[in-house]
Structure formats: C-alpha cells, structure tokens
Amino acid sequence: MKTKIFISLLCCLFLFIRTSIYSQVKFFISPEINFKTSTAFVDPNDLNTTENNLLENQFFYKPYSVAYASRIVKHQTFLYGISAGIKFKNNKRILKLNYTLDLANFRAQSHYRAYNEENYSGFTVNYLNIGFKRFGFDYCINISKENKLSATWISFGGGVNINRNRWVSIFSFAPNTQLNPNGDLLLSTYLRPFKENKTNVFLKIGINQDMYIKKKYIFSVNIDYVQGFGIISRVEFVHEYNLNGSFVYDGTGLMSRGSGFYWGINRRLQVYPWKKKNNEFKSIQSQL
Question: How many domains does one find in the chain?
C-alpha cells in the first residue's frame, strides 16, 4: 500500500510539472556508475551479546567458536543506473527519476578453537551479495556561484527498493575441525541466501559536482547516502556441527535495509531541446 501511494504521488508530481512549466525546462537522460559501501546487522532475536557499537563488527557466540558479522561491508562491483529528468531554465533546479541496480552486502567470519589448542586460532570468512532494484527520484539544488568551472548540487530524494532474489546456492567452507576429545566436529560455515519477495522505501541525500573543461560540461561526480526503512534482504550465517554423534544446524540471521554510502560518476545528456541557442553569435551578427 505504501509503495502504491508513493508511486501515485510521484506520477502526479511529474504530470503537474509537465503541464505547468513544460516550456521552461530542458530534458535529459543520465547514465551512471556507482560503488557502494553497505551497512548490515545481526537479527536482534539471534544476538546473544549486548555490544551496541554501530561501526564495529557485531559478535555472538556459537559452540566452540566466536562469530562476527560486519556492520559495514565494502565491495568492488560496479552498480549501473539510468536517470531521466528536467533541468529548469535558470539552471538552479533539477528533478529526475532514476533506476539503479543495487546490492545488499554481507560479510561474516567465525573464529573457532580446535582440539588441543588453547586459543581461537582457526577462522572462516564468508561474503555474499544479494541484488535488488532501486526506483526513486532526486530533487537537486544548485548551491554554487555563477561560473563555468564547476557547479555543486545538493540532492534530496526517496523511492522504493524491490528485491526478487531467486539465488539460493550455497558455497560452504568445510574445515571438519575436531573440537574436543569426544569427536565433536565443526563441519562447515556459510552464508545462506533465501528466495525473497520484499519491498521497502528509502530516503536519500547527496552531493553532485559538475566538472567542466574550457567552460564545457564533461561529467559529474556524486557522493550519496541512502537509508532504507524495513528489511529488504535477510541471509543466515550457518554453522554445521556433529555434536555427540548428531548433526546440528545453527543459523544466525543477518539483515539489510539496503542502506549505504555511494560514490560514482554520471553524465547528463540533453535530449530536448536538441540545439542550444547561441545568443553570443546572434549578438555579434547584429553588430556587423
């Protein structure tokens, strides 16, 4: 219901702009490439410690091991997107719709103590990226002084994240480590994805910097932060054991709202009007 209301309001906004100020704007499309640093957290129902540091790893206990889940996860995957929007005649405002491929990123590790070892010397590290789609809008305000060397925009926006993940493959790490004299074993650790059909909303704030060479616009760089509301993806950090001769499956939920920091480049390509008026050339002709 919230998603339908949001999309309806967005459509009404663009219809109003189209009918009221059509002759005063320039239309453009803008391809973009971004990198992302994600944020994630452990399901509070599965967390058996009381640490609350928002920047460091969250840790929790497993049989014979201590596990960690990263709150901040970096990745090196390009995120591609496309925007379409309007630039107002005074070059001080931009309103655009955007579609972007996005990722919920998870990273977890487990430190375990093997039989006859005093310290937790062994460890496993697991990574997982769950893809989803982001639909939204940005309203940008030019906060720079009048010049042709650069232009700085502050942007505010929001939208909808849609996760339709169907990837359920598991890549496990299998140490088969003996844990005590009775023969208890740590069989494997892995991050387990699920089939999902989730949607949430987000808010966005950012800064864009237009770059010019010889007074000609070349491209823009951007830094953004997106905050999601509600869970968009959940995976399990699994430890599999053989304890007292029985198989034990021990799973801990890791969650993402789709939030994170983005930085990248984009390029506005004007599609209407096709040709700009050269007022300086006309002024010179009139003087001849």
Answer: 1
